[in-house]
Amino acid sequence: MALGWGIISAGAHPNNNIAPAISSVDSEDLVAIYSRDQGRADAFAEKHGAKAAYDDLDAMLADPRVDAVFVASPNSLHAKHGLKAAAAGKHVMMEKPMTTTLEDAVSLVQGCRDAGVRLGMAFMMRHHPGHVLAREMVKQGTLGKINLAHVQGGPGTRGQGPPPPRTGLQAWWEDPDQIGGASVMMGIGVHLADLLRFVLDQEVVEVSAMSDGQTDEHPLEQLTTLLLRFDGGTIATLTCGRIIPDNRNDLVLYGIDGRLATQRTVSANVQGKVEVVSDTLNRTEVYTQGRLGNFSGQLVEFHQAVEAGRDPSASGIDGLRVVEITLAMIESARHGRTVKIQHQQV
Question: Is the separation of the CB atoms in 100 and 190 below 8 Å?
């Protein structure tokens, strides 16, 4: 039976990616869209074939055809909207970042748990088959102990220069309070931090960050680099930015017995290449599945988790852990010091 989806926000991301991904899979059904503007909701519903359009969130959450809600509202509203959906008995998939504060993250995880609904994160890069392969190689020990890892991503800006400020309905991305105190980290870096956690199956315990923001003059950054220490001993670097002319969008794992390197896989698209070179295996995989594969993959896997009564691959706890990393990045970049992470238990 198809899972009925309601989407909170008729913005660019749901319009360009989430609604098309739902429509591309037979097992998922776009039931409803909520926007504060009824005209925008109506236009979105007509474009994507949603059965209903609402400018009243409570009304959408009361629609019995809606089984799960995809929350894509401004970052500062994520916890409020997620808890409201959970209280209405709807499963919740949350766009990144899960929340902008640690308190909200803990409340959201606990609230969904108390309501008996599933909470998942839209960390779509987990569903790229090259990243799944990387996780398998690590788990199988093909590369030996991973001592060093690197991930880097962002849009290429060759010939374009820095991106212009966002205006209109997307202006909240320029507001430190609504976005959560970081820009490129919230937009891109959270995906990269989760990707490292996913492939290494380790948790970050220490963060040292440097950025071109997190100051009174420039509160939001366009470029940041993190040095991460994981609890399994791996040291990793994470770099993301919107002002790099030729982003490589790659992941590299250096083990005692081998190396795994990807090219252009760190993306919303299923694309790129993975090369594994080790004492026991030489392997190359090329991916050309297209634009919506990672998005549809995360929706289908979430649906499977709901039916099985289990947490999805990217769970609320995964969202919480990345909130911890992000807040540590902001503190480290702002104060110029290494920050140790004390993981919240929920």
Answer: no
Contact 81, 18 (CB under 8 A): no
Q: Which residue has the tokens 């289990």?
A: 310
22 with 98, same domain? yes
Give 3-state DSSP helix, strand, coil % of the chain, rounded to 5. Answer: 40, 25, 35
Instruction: List, in sequence order, every residue forming a beta bridge with 239; answer none if it has no partner.
Output: 152, 225
296 within some domain = yes
| Domain count within the chain | 2
Nearest to 230 by CA among 127, 138, 137, 100: 138
Residues 308, 204 within the same domain: yes
Based on the domain organization, do 145 and 247 belong to the same domain?
A: yes
Q: By the 8 A CB rule, do 12 and 315 touch?
A: no
- The enclosing H or E element of 148 equals strand 146-153
User: pLDDT for 34-46, tens place per residue?
Assistant: 999 999 999 999 9
Contact 158, 165 (CB under 8 A): no
Token pair in block for residue 126: 């987990």
Confidence grade of residue 171 (pLDDT, cut at 50, 70, 90):
confident
Work out the mean pLDDT of the chain and round it to a whole number: 94
Among candidates 133, 155, 323, which has minimal Cα distance to 248?
155
What CATH number is attached to the domain comprising 289?
3.30.360.10
Burial of 49 (0-12, 13-18, 19+ CB in 10 A): exposed
Note the pTM of the prediction, 2 decimals.
Answer: 0.95
Q: What are phi and psi of 340, to 5 degrees?
A: -90, 140
Kindly state whether residues 137 and 248 are assigned to the same domain: yes
* End-to-end Cα distance, the chain: 32
The domain containing residue 211 runs over which residues? 129-340
Pairing outcome for strands 339-340 and 146-153: unpaired
How many CB atoms are located within 10 Å of the residue 303 CB?
24
pLDDT score for 247: 86
- Radius of gyration, alpha carbons of the chain: 20
| Model confidence pLDDT, tens digit, residues 186-199 | 999 999 999 999 99
